[in-house]
Amino acid sequence: MKKYILYPLSVIVLVMLSTGCSKDFLDRQPLDREVSTNFYRTEKDAMMALTAVYDALGWDQMPGVSWAPFCAVSDILSDDSFAGGSDPNDGMDENELNTYNIPTTNLLVKATWMINYVGIYRANLLMEKMDQINMTEEKKARMIAECKFLRAYFHFELVRFFENIPLLTATIKGPSEYNQNQETPKEVYDQIALDLVEAAAVLPTVIPPDEGGRVSKWAAESLLGRVYLFYNGVYGAELQAGDLVVDRAKTLEYLEDVIANSGHDLFPDYTTNFKLAGEFGIESVFEISHGDNPPWWDWYYVVGGEGNLAAQMQGPRVTGSSNWNRGWSFGIVSQKLVDDFGDDPRLAMTIVRDEDLDGTLTKGYQHTGYFSRKYSSDAEHWGSDGQFELNRTCNFRVIRFSDVLLMAAELGSGNAQTYLDRVRSRVGLGSIPATPDNIYKERRLELSLEGIRYFDVLRKGLSYASQEFTVVGVRGPKYTDDQVVYDVTFNSATKGFLPIPQTEIDLSGGVIHQNDGY
Amino acid sequence: MKVNLYKLIFPVIFICFTTGLMAQKHTVTGTVNDATDQTGIPGATVLEKGTTNGTITDVNGKYSLTVTSDKDTLVISFIGYKKIEIPINGRAVIDVNLESTQTELDEVVVIGYGSQKKKVVTGAIATVNSDQIEKIPVLRVEQAMQGQTAGVQVTQMSGQPGEAPTVRIRGTGTTMDSNPLYVVDGMVVGGIDYLNPGDIQSIDVLKDAASAAIYGARAANGVVLITTKTGSAGKMSLNFSTYYGIQNVGQTIEMMNADQYRMLMNEGARNANQTEPFDLNEVPNANTDWQELMFTKNAPMMNYDLSIAGGSDRATYASSVSYFSQQGIIGGEKSQFDRLTARLNGNVKATNWFTFGSDLAYSSISRKGIASNGSFNTAYSSALNLDPLTPLYETDTANLSKPPFSNQPVVTTTDGKIYGISGYYDYVENSWKEYVGAEVVNPLALLEIQTGETRVDKFVGNIYGEITFIEGLKFRSSLGSDLAYVNWDTYTPLYYLNGAQSNTDLTTVSKNMDRYFNWQWENTLSYSKKIKDHNFSALVGTSAKEDNWENLSGFNDDVPLTDPDNVYLNMATDSAWRAYGGATSYSLFSMFGRITYDYKSRYAFTGIIRRDGSSNFGPNNRYGWFPSVGVSWMLTEENFMPELGPVDFLKLRASWGINGNDRIGYYQYVSTIDKSRGYTFGGGSQTGASPGYIENADVKWEESEQIDIALDAGLFSNRLTVTVDYYVKNTKDLLETIEIPGYVGNNAPVANIGSVQNKGVEMSVNWRHYLKKLHYYAGVNAAYNKNKMTKIGNEQGYLWGASWAIAGPVERCEEGMPIAYFYGYKTDGIFQNQNEVYQHIGSEGYQLQPNAKPGDVRFVDVNGDNVISPDDRTYIGNPTPEWTLGINGGVEYMNFDLSFLFIGAFGHQIFNGAQRQDLLYTNRPVSALGRWTGEGTSNEIPRYTWTDVNNNYRVSDLYIENGDYLRLKNIQIGYTLPKKFLERIKSSSWRFFISAENLVTITGYSGADPEIGAISSLDIGIDRGMYPAAVTFRFGTSISF
Predict the structure, then answer these.
(1) Interface touch A14/B525, C-beta < 8 Å
(2) Is A92 helix (H, G, I), strand (E, B) or coil?
(3) Is A213 on the interface with B (CB under 8 A)?
(4) With bands split at pLDDT 50, 70 and 90, how would you rate the model's confidence at A13?
(5) H-run or E-run covering A124
(6) Would you say the ipTM is above 0.85?
(7) CB contact A49 to B (< 8 Å)
């Protein structure tokens, strides 16, 4: 009878099914996407992962939080810019920064915090995955050096804005690691210095044009100069990069190396720095790229695009012009900066005045009559496609060669006078003695509206900051609002640092502490 | 083989043939009837006693048998009836009444991988059978459960044809997918819209964890087992049924007319110190009733269903074809559902130890839909908000010569009439000035440009083979597949509805194709044995399942024609080709076992264990165990129990079990790589990639633990049956996105952190009584369910739920509260005068609403912090009904029958958000005229002003209304033609009916329809101007041969 053959057969089928095939059968991977467990294998994967780290550099917004381009945030905090916007309600968070009356829930603060940690996470992740990537050791070394540079850059942004931050040299793996301590500033700065020193030793000295934007040895050395000046200025101490003490002399050595050996130089024309023609050019030691490719429409995921959001925010509210279009008039320039320029020729290269604009200008909140010209909604930088607000194409020059010259001069280079003269003569100004005051004043004018001023003032001490940032009763001829909306008083209690975002404290289980003054 | 086949197909003919051959001495004819309702019993056996000479009754219960002598005795039997022996005593005509041995307790209940007599069922299983479904012809199978069983809440999503209703078994059990698992003839399917309700034999709902445990990791939201009809031995029966219905809107909302509107707008302007926009002495150029224009009159629906069934003792079959078509009451054929189905079920007993069969079903569905419950761009929302001054068609030639009519692609009818646009032409500024703008547009114009159709071709098939080794020991293997192609396409023409809603650039066409292919292979070995009064059964089995989905979609622009029904991608002339495609795959492998035991049906025990492995979980948590036990005790079978008067039986049940829910999304345990991380280097844009979120490899199923304690009773000769269930269902490990610190540097992972509790009582009481010619029945089922979030694992302690219009979230989910409760400000009436504004102070003596004016809303400082701020938002209502009710009944007398069904839901609120308070110039219901206009005029409706400095219309309890309703879901009157007539045309039954759906709705709710389904677990009971259910009248007939 057939059924007596089938009987054991059916039992075998059952047993087989229950033990054998189930493991592989259930082990599924997404079919149309890669996952963290099967990505990070090839050189191409690694390059995409590295690109993602650079991507965070270009984030002028934190998804779901706020727009917060670095230079707009930094300049609004300084005496160079007011909050602006269309009306008092438009830029409430910006105005809180402007007036140093910053609640711990300020969204620009939170965005600034989060953006930089996104970059740190991605840099750490790629370094952790490097072992499993099939690629030459030489390429790996360069990528690791780039990651270290970028990690240092992000940490530096955080520590100079927030002072007391968690230092992350590895990714956070899971719930047991969610509560991180704040490290002392020294720990953080020393790690930044170490990352930069190590990066500088490996990074290439020449970046081919098609790799423009990837960091070089010179970028690392120059950034170290900026880090040293701020750290030494605020804390009066030297950096310790592992075994290497990075003091004034060592820092200067790095900067002199850049000046002597990098091949970087000044553009003959100052304005080339803010033109498409100058992008990744000879004066750019470190530059963050922006663009309109892919053309972007999605307001809900702005960072998927590459546009320079500072340019959108700071542009004048002009319609009907073929030279300017529809900015939002944030970060509006102060009379104080204009006064400090005096008759310096760089004034006209730095700002736009009402009368320079064609088309119809709608005056916004805290109108002063001046807008930034460096990162603005000018026609040269209009995106060719996509939602125009999200596709402004100006690259952000983080470190220009003139900055390097002035840093070296400030640190007491033997060539200080030459360096200062180079910067001045480029814009047709005569020589003045290379005194610390003159060098410092030169920085103010040469580098204004590039996000540098706020930290240059803070590193001169709180009484100086108080003197510079407290601006009451100053009124320009084009000011339209009541004087009270232009009056700003610095809050020394915060030492100029931003509050730790409230959500970070709430979620930290009591580990993260708020900064003084908040 | 030939002989076998012959036997297989023509047994009836064979029997007739053989009996015809044996010309004998005495012939008896007669009818075998059911003793209770006097209907003929088809298929009953009539035997000459002591011989094999016999026959079976025909479809009308008639028989004719020639016996050896007129002194013989007839033995008449049929399953479920008492066997009867009747001496012929020379009679030529013998009519017989058989008495049923069946009670409700003998009914067979489908339990998953088998069936069980109700008597020994230990879990909570509710059954809806084909009789009930036939009484209330439904469009979708889910609706057949509506109001029929306690604890199964079925709520329509809207009145849109074909839209899936919300089905909740014992409350909302998760913040994610709360829909039950649907199993059709053993095959787990994604949805049941492909089924023809006429094909359904029974729907068995496994409500408690013990019953559902056999479906393990997918059973936490309950399991619905659907069994389709199979044929039975006997002559082929043929049934044709059809109905035609007309649908109209039931309740509309009385809106202000042009005069009332202009008056109120002027008042709004006046209160805002603005110029009054209207001169009331002028005759308005229109007085449009948008609802009157928008609702389709007598929207048709129709159904045709042809089925045949029959078979022999070797093979049975049931087959059907059906066509259903329904037009919506909004948008007519723009909101239409068509379904064609074909089915063939067959079973063959090939040998006495081998049986095989198959269920094959094909469905073709076409669905055209419009947005049914949204604040933006929905026709009904526009109809409720557009001003009455806008004409349906703009005919003023002065206006037509001006923008936007002169220079924009304004919408026109097919015969060239131009739809009106809200506003007027301002000759001073030379531009069109809108009254109502934003998303509020001419609803007829909006419907005119509506395109898009979803077409589904679905094939569900299942084949099985079953071997019986020895009596009671069976091996069954079944292989099923569910293949579906879903295409949807849209075409966006050029249009200009108003300044904000337009597409003036390029037409767009998009096509999307999805292929779903799921298969399932199940093997079970079962054994049942009866030893004296002990009944045992055991089942072990395995199940493997795989679900695959693949998608391809394409878009392009600039299509040079405007026939929206005939647009394909190739017609597009732009170069902006975009294409997307993706795929997913899911697998499940399970082992399960069940043991049942009962002693004389007095004590019964069921134990189930299932182990599921799901590809939705990572290696850390891939497998889960799901156990359950259930016991029952038939008290009345105990010798020590005294007679309890009218009580026939009393049964206690108790069960405990754990179920899972693996429907948490694919691959949650691993982080996918997001490639939208580009950066522009000198050489150009480069793609960047990094994980989309922090991964949590420990993600696992949600787990639901439930106890159920119940009592079943029968009284008065089982005419009255009562069932009461009490249950507590705790679902834990709900998957939520947790909050993590920003310095982690990536999006947060999901984790199993929440829990929710549902507990409640279900009662159903049914009375059924057969008198001589009268049969009547009535039933009430009621369920009370208390839903509570018991844990929200994230740091902030709540989850945001649904949003409304531009006001942001109006629902949230919080520990200790019902899932998705209404969250907003509490109000305390209207400030009647300035003094009341001054007196509205906090504990520190400061004015709480210093900017308020008399007539504005007084908000409550709930947290006592001396300011009215978002922190004062609190619980303002619960959208989930605490009580759901179904009442059904009917009478059958002579050839007439009447049946009705009421459904109701109580103890919940509705957020009435049909009005766009955030926009100026929107029309309002007439009830808005009861606004505050001076001291003492109103304490509920604030003054009407265009500068709402007090923000009177923020989300508050002013929007909350009592949602209780009782609805006459169906009432039906039928007439069956008399038998004498039917015999002449060889018909076994021919019935006509008329029915009405949603004829009466008793509610205090002021919106169009209080029956509002849940869009998701966290979007419940918000009326955004919902497409209301139609009132339908149907006429139909059903004839069987």
Answers:
(1) yes
(2) helix
(3) yes
(4) low
(5) helix A107-129
(6) yes
(7) yes
